[in-house]
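Worked example 3 (structure in, sequence out).
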């Protein structure tokens, strides 16, 4: 169990490296003080431009790739590989931890992003084919409603459905999918409140049904 605990902790610490805040420090800005106040890629795009946002996404996706693809198989000194720890459960534990670290980063007063880009990186390692229905649902939702946050919530909700159908024997993946769907909905609660109040921003370039 030492391996499980230590690698989950390392994944969380890696997740706590927030792309927008690292690049923002180099630029002399804190995007948590601009736009929506969120440290994620969408706010980075709206307040700093696409080149800055691209760098943010590369960091936030890349750290998830590292946490999920490398950490579970890493033979750490004095820890080694514990045969009692299932590799599937270890991988999803690291995936969940890196997403949690992005949302609640210890390095930045526990004020991070909403976890979407980091989750994409984690899923790209765990089950890359799952990204297809995720992308389809996200794009369809944004094109029909203009709401990026709603698209992210619904797209993440496809994960447990996909895992139940495509990997019915994997309790680890199904548990991860359900947990992430609930977690991402929670991190987007402010978006839900703004949608209910009628003042949520819309992605007008992708919103096909916008008023002409």
């Amino acid at each position: 169990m030492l391996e499980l605990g230590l690698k989950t902790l390392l994944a969380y610490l890696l997740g706590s490296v927030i792309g927008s805040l690292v690049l923002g420090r180099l630029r002399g800005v804190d995007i948590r003080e601009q736009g929506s106040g969120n440290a994620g890629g969408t706010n980075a795009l709206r307040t700093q431009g696409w080149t800055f946002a691209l760098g943010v996404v590369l960091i936030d996706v890349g750290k998830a790739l590292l946490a999920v693809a490398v950490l579970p198989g890493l033979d750490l000194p004095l820890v080694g590989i514990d045969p009692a720890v299932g590799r599937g459960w270890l991988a999803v534990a690291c995936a969940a931890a890196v997403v949690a670290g992005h949302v609640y980063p210890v390095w930045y007063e526990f004020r991070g992003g909403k976890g979407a880009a980091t989750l994409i990186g984690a899923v790209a390692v765990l089950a890359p084919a799952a990204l297809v229905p995720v992308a389809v649902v996200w794009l369809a939702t944004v094109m029909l409603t203009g709401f990026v946050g709603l698209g992210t919530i619904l797209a993440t909700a496809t994960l447990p459905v996909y895992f139940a159908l495509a990997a019915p024997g994997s309790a680890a993946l199904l548990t991860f999918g359900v947990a992430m769907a609930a977690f991402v909905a929670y991190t987007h609660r402010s978006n839900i409140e703004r949608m209910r109040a009628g003042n949520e921003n819309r992605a007008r370039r992708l919103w096909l049904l916008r008023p002409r």
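Notes: The chain has a mean pLDDT of 90. Residues 50-69 form the longest helix (20 residues).
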